[in-house]
Amino acid sequence: MNAPTCFSLGCVLYRLCAGKLPFAGRDTMSMLLAITQDEPQPLGQLNAAVPPPLAQLVHQLLAKNPQERPASAQAVVQAIQTIEREWVNQLKNGITAKTPPTGLRVGLLERPGAKPADRPSMPSLTMRHSTSWSCSKR
To answer: How much is the pLDDT for 95?
Structure first.
């Protein structure tokens, strides 16, 4: 995974976790300026259900300096798997009061306060092996 792909994934994950884009602008030029100059609002401020390690990974994917982004797709997958394992262990041990996310599978979070009727029907992603994914409607 190259640096622009990491950044794009960070934008998608940010939107899934926060319910909004990480950068805002009224037109193309102001959006481009925001991407190059602004920092996105911390995910924890927008959605308290986002585990801090996931928020940290998303912000790392959105780093301005490409050298500060994860080095490979495998590094991103491993980070997400580690975050998921740690979160599940915390929930099992009662360490955290946060409840597991609902909605999109694969551990992605939906907007806080969204009701089932407010959400469009989303495809669910299921990992089949270590490298292939299938997509199906819920």
So the answer is: 66
What's the full length of the chain, in residues? 138
Tracing tokens 């599940």 back to the chain, one arrives at 88
Asked if 80 contacts 47 with a C-beta cutoff of 8 angstroms, the reply is no
pTM: 0.67
Contacts of 48 (CB under 8 A, 6+ apart): 98, 112
**90-120 residues labelled b (16+ CB within 10 A) or e (exposed):** eeeeeeeeeeebeebeeebbbbeeeeeeeee
Q: Which residue has the higher pLDDT, 131 or 14?
A: 14
Question: Is there a contact between 59 and 40 (Cβ–Cβ < 8 Å)?
Answer: yes
Q: Supply the mean pLDDT for the chain.
A: 76
